[in-house]
């Protein structure tokens, strides 16, 4: 499909706002599904947005950006993947591959913005020392500007040239490339699963992994009822842990008294 | 400096809202310090009033190195404001010591709960429902993060100001237990997700004489359900444990899938 000017403007703006929100109010910083859905709706295909967003979301699980570390920009990858899938009319795997590539590029731009923000920080301190407090506050807004652009610019380039470029490449590559990318799209969520397992108390509570697996794979239970069962088990574990903690404290207190 | 409190709840809420600058102020030298300056500028102005010299010194202190999970950082920053409210410039060293001394432990709590557990559980529900074309999961995720991230980010300033840092030690035990319990919920959900969201199929079949045995249809869809996704998860898990980077694994999966399509062992 052909992207209209208003769609280019609105989606670029969403990419800008997404980034400031991700670093500022931090409500949708990990919500790739939401952003891909919105971008899909703007392009007239919310369903594709939801599906591409979901694939990226699953990859991203457990891969959090902590303490200023740089990880692939997953919501941007989801938005770019949605745009490319819808604009080219190709398989979602193609959109995902382009989206992930742009999301990784986003990490490099992120480093640039963090360096540029060093100038902002020094400027801010200089204004404070000079007693120019209004300028001190105002110069801080360079931060969100730098960060917003790190996502808005790649998005704009994809919107303007992405569709044609991808289609031009796909006319020369053999068909197994597109089916290979589609297979990769189905397999990539495994990264999120593995990353999560390495965070969680796997050794201690592996049995709950088996419970969830059996309910889903053999009984076909949906995710919400499984989450409820998991939640019930979690509550029992919490009660048990806090009651033993209290008992231990009481015991230690008693010993100190003697 | 007098002992009466100068900051009201409204001042603290205002500081909390200005703290929404958060990571937008991030830089490599002082990390989140520019956002701390931005957030505290007006509260500090109220504390120091017309004493411009003291205000300036306090701002310089706020501009020193700081980094903590933003939604819970307000506990430390609010506690710091209370100290300056009491003792003015005399408290500056103690404020910086407090911030740097406790930012690690408070971030440990904040990262585990707000950046890992909640996005994991609600993100996986959002993705699972999204695959079926239902945006409700993404909206539930947004509502949860609104409370656990944004509301906490603003409110934690008042908690820190009023209760000080003893709050952190009181909460630490409970939060360790909560984090472990959330792990149980997380593992149950991940167990359910592996066979449903990791999609790996093989068209391979074993032919013995006249009889053809399709691995996928007759084995992996019926008896060993979810076997290939489990194998893939175990392999990637091992790679992550060996500190192979996520980007390398992404590339590896794409290359493996392309090979699978070209040679016909995946489909």
Helices and strands in order:
The complex is a heterodimer of chains A (258) and B (267).
Chain A: H1 5-23, H2 32-42, H3 46-60, H4 74-88, H5 92-129, H6 133-139, H7 142-172, H8 175-187, H9 189-199, H10 202-217, H11 223-257
Chain B: H1 9-18, H2 33-48, H3 52-62, H4 70-87, H5 92-131, H6 136-163, H7 166-197, E1 205-208, E2 211-214, H8 215-220, H9 227-241, H10 246-263
Antiparallel strand pairs in B: 1-2
Helix pairs in contact in B: 1-2, 1-6, 2-3, 2-4, 4-5, 4-6, 5-6, 5-7
Q: What key phrases describe this protein's structure?
A:
heterodimer; A: mainly alpha; 2 domains; 0% strand; flat; disordered C terminus; B: 267 residues; mainly alpha; two-stranded antiparallel sheet
What can you tell me about this protein's structure?
The complex is a heterodimer of chains A (258) and B (267). By secondary structure, chain A is an all-alpha fold. Chain A has 2 domains: 195 residues, no CATH class; 58 residues. Chain A is 82% helix and 0% strand. The longest helix of chain A has 38 residues. In chain A, 53% of the residues are buried. With 267 residues, chain B is mostly helical. Chain B folds into 2 domains: 186 residues, no CATH class; 63 residues, no CATH class. Chain B has 10 helices and 2 strands, in the order αααααααββααα. In chain B, strands 1-2 form a two-stranded antiparallel sheet. In chain B, a hairpin with a 2-residue loop joins strand 1 and strand 2. In chain B, helix 2 runs antiparallel to helix 3, helix 5 packs antiparallel against helix 6 and helix 5 packs parallel to helix 7. Chain B is elongated, with a radius of gyration of 26 Å. In chain B, 51% of the residues are buried. The model of chain B has no long low-confidence stretch (mean pLDDT 89). At the A-B interface, helix 1, helix 2, helix 3, helix 5 and helix 6 of A face helix 2, helix 3, helix 5, helix 6 and helix 7 of B.
